[in-house]
Specification:
single chain, mainly beta, five-stranded mixed sheet, about 0% helix, about 45% strand, flat
């Protein structure tokens, strides 16, 4: 006899959005994008990386086509070299062979924000993968201020609308302002009950 397994090729990225601070013309800022094969079989191929709309201020450093087996990842470096200051929005488009045709031109939002505090959660998303009942793994994430101004965090919590299977195991001390480039460690625990697909959102409130 024979059997057939459907191809499960799926692309994932972390962070889900690339944030850059607004800097003077001639400056250089780089951000790292982690691309992962989050499917269960076959090979994910990423064949091209372009920007939409095209903008010569943004480049993917030394991009070359790459293949990933399930669970494996590849780092891309996105460089921003502004010729003029100001806020900007565009998408990084990753051409790939995801099983979902709608994701074969996978769009990663890219944004330049004028001088302010900017919070980046790493990794983003915080993905536990497939966890069996009875297990209770943790992931240490970081809240990073990638902006140019201090940030005062007033509260951190998981969304009450999300799954109760997630909890914050270790809360960071955010009593003092988070200065630019500083990061706060945060430990999230996942204890699944039942075989459902679980998700929630991390809510961080700041003082304007």
């Amino acid at each position: 006899g024979s059997f057939c397994v459907d191809a499960d090729i799926r692309i994932g990225v972390s962070p889900s959005k690339l944030l850059f601070v607004d800097v003077a013309a001639g400056s250089v800022i780089e951000r790292t994008l982690n691309v992962t094969h989050i499917g269960n079989n076959n090979t994910l191929r990423v064949s091209a990386a372009t920007f939409d709309p095209p903008n010569p201020e943004f480049t993917v450093v030394d991009f070359a086509q790459f293949d990933l087996q399930p669970g494996k990842g590849h780092k891309l470096t996105v460089r921003y070299t502004p010729t003029a200051a100001g806020s900007k929005k565009l998408n990084l488009i990753l051409a790939n062979n995801d099983k979902d045709q709608a994701k074969r031109k996978f769009a990663v939002p890219v944004e330049v924000a004028a001088g302010q505090a900017l919070l980046q959660v790493m990794p983003d998303p915080i993905d536990f993968g497939n966890i069996a009942d009875g297990q209770s793994p943790t992931i240490e994430a970081s809240l990073v201020n990638i902006g140019t101004l201090d940030m005062q965090i007033t509260s951190i919590e998981l969304s009450k609308a999300g799954s109760a299977d997630f909890s914050i195991d270790k809360m960071p001390d955010f009593s003092a302002p988070v200065v630019p480039n500083a990061n706060l460690p945060l430990v999230v625990r996942y204890k699944p009950v039942g075989g459902d697909f679980d998700q929630t959102s991390l809510l961080v409130e700041t003082k304007d």
